[in-house]
Amino acid sequence: MSNHLEARMGDIADTVLMPGDPLRAKYIAETFLDNPVCYNRVRNAFGYTGTYQGHRISVQGTGMGIPSISIYANELINDYGVKKLFRVGTAGGMSPDVQLRDVVLAQGSSTDSAIIQNTFGPGIYYAPISDFGLLDTAYHAAQDLKIPVKVGNILAEDRFYNDEMDRQKLIDYGVVATEMESAALFMLAAKYQVKALSVLTISNHLITGESTKPEEREKSFNDMIKVALEAAIR
Ligand SMILES: O=P(O)(O)O[C@H]1O[C@H](CO)[C@@H](O)[C@H]1O
Ligand SMILES: O=c1cc[nH]c(=O)[nH]1
């Protein structure tokens, strides 16, 4: 048991998929895992462990934003010994290079969050990056699954509604999409010497204003999940 998880030691696999939406954790567990067992209902942040192609995998809902994912990442790593963390989330497209329903592998995550300054102090602009081994594995797993993926720098921003961000400048500097967690996940993984990657689906596009309908999203969400699961077991 940890501060926010009621799982017992050993209930959580050493590889965890981490969607923001706890109901997506339930969906992933019930759709993709064999014999899923729910180990956490605290705050409705559902967590499940089952097997995928014979490999033990957990899925933990993390809630939205850096403060929330930081709680679950810290506890999964430090209280339960988790070693590989895959965020599986939605993201808003920014660059014209990404379209609705695209799957994006986050190579790095820029951020406007104070976590960088609060960790390193003034003058150091630490760059949170994903684990190269997981990135490489996920990229090749996607190729084998014939699921097209884009790889690039993303933004983890503190505000979902944010009309003060100079998005064009970020796009000009290669940022392809925005979400709200990856910078913290990558930084914590580095701190505790574990591996993390974010596998994202473009659910809407901030520049074109397009958005997917819930029923349209299912297949592309499934693609993201398949890529993460395949990478998780390789
Ligand atoms: O779909 P999830 O994983 O929740 O991720 C994205 O969706 C939420 C905002 O709607 C934020 O958590 C953002 O990062
Ligand atoms: O954080 C997010 C997630 C999905 N779409 C967005 O525009 N922002």
UniProtKB/TrEMBL annotation:
Phosphate binds at residues 20, 24, 43, 87-90. Belongs to the PNP/UDP phosphorylase family. Residues 16-225 form the Nucleoside phosphorylase domain. Gene3D superfamilies: Nucleoside phosphorylase domain. The record marks 217 as: Important for catalytic activity. The keyword Glycosyltransferase applies. GO terms for biological process: purine nucleoside catabolic process. One of its GO terms (cellular component) is cytosol. It catalyses: a purine 2'-deoxy-D-ribonucleoside + phosphate = a purine nucleobase + 2-deoxy-alpha-D-ribose 1-phosphate; a purine D-ribonucleoside + phosphate = a purine nucleobase + alpha-D-ribose 1-phosphate; uridine + phosphate = alpha-D-ribose 1-phosphate + uracil. SUPFAM superfamilies: Purine and uridine phosphorylases (SSF53167). It comes from Levilactobacillus namurensis DSM 19117. It comes from the Bacteria. Keywords: Glycosyltransferase, Transferase. Its EC number is 2.4.2.1. Catalyzes the reversible phosphorolytic breakdown of the N-glycosidic bond in the beta-(deoxy)ribonucleoside molecules, with the formation of the corresponding free purine bases and pentose-1-phosphate. One of its GO terms (molecular function) is purine-nucleoside phosphorylase activity. It is an enzyme of class 2 (transferase). Homohexamer; trimer of homodimers. A purine D-ribonucleoside binds at residues 4, 179-181, 203-204. The lineage of its organism: Bacteria, Bacillati, Bacillota, Bacilli, Lactobacillales. This is Purine nucleoside phosphorylase DeoD-type.
